[in-house]
Amino acid sequence: MIRLMFCAVTAACMLSACGFQLQGRDNFPFKNLYVQSTGSREMSALLKRRIETGSDTTVLQSPGGADAILMLSEGRGQGTLSLSAEGLVEEYELDLTLSYQLVAKNGTVLIPPSSIALNRSMTYDDQYALAKQSESEILYRDMEHDAVDQLLRRLAVVHTLEPGEEPAAPAVNRRAPLPTPPL
User: Fold this and answer.
1) Rounded to a whole number, what is the largest CA-CA distance in the chain?
2) Dihedral of the alpha carbons of 56, 164, 109, 153, in degrees to the nearest 10
3) Handedness of CA 138, 143, 148, 153 (dihedral sign)
4) Under 8 Å CB-to-CB from 82, ≥6 apart: which residues?
5) Distances 160 to 22, 39, 102, 114 between C-alpha atoms, Å
């Protein structure tokens, strides 16, 4: 029993020392939000679910009683990343861009027009065209989850709905370099 208690205390100390922290609840200044989206329905549903479960903000179906309006548009793209010696595609790059803007109900811009750009690479072989199509959908879904995570972190920067109290959240440079992938 003493050994078990010692192991539990040691594990708790190690977790607190490494900076581990449970994901907390967001405290948005807007309690009613309307999401105007031209993106995929799956991403809109994921965003709504994450906002409502991770904060005390309610996502409304119409902009009537909303404290703020989040305007979203999603773009997908695909480009050739590499070719074989015969000129056949060996690798594709899948791109997802989420453009967004947050505006208060009185028209104040809380987050200026900004975008989140994500990409993934995918090998390709004509023999497995159906499987590669399914893989690309999985990769797009993964990018949508990443984009929603980033968007929620950027929404958390907004602390007030009043224009004079605090400057608007900074926009993100659309040409910002991507982080170096882990080795």
Assistant:
1) 68
2) -40
3) positive
4) 89, 90, 91
5) 25, 27, 12, 19
Q: What is the spatial distance between Cα 57 and Cα 29, in angstroms, rounded to a whole number?
A: 9
How far is it, in rounded angstroms, from Cα 132 to Cα 128?
A: 6
Report the C-alpha gap between 112 and 99 in whole angstroms. Answer: 10
Q: pLDDT > 70: what percent of the chain?
A: 82
Q: Which of 12-21, 37-46, 134-143 has the highest mean pLDDT?
A: 134-143
Instruction: Provide the token pair at 154.
Output: 């950027």
61 CB-side CA count, 13 A? 0
Q: CA-CA distance, 170 to 154, in Å (whole number)?
A: 9
Closest listed residue to residue 98, CA positions, set 40, 183, 139, 54? 40
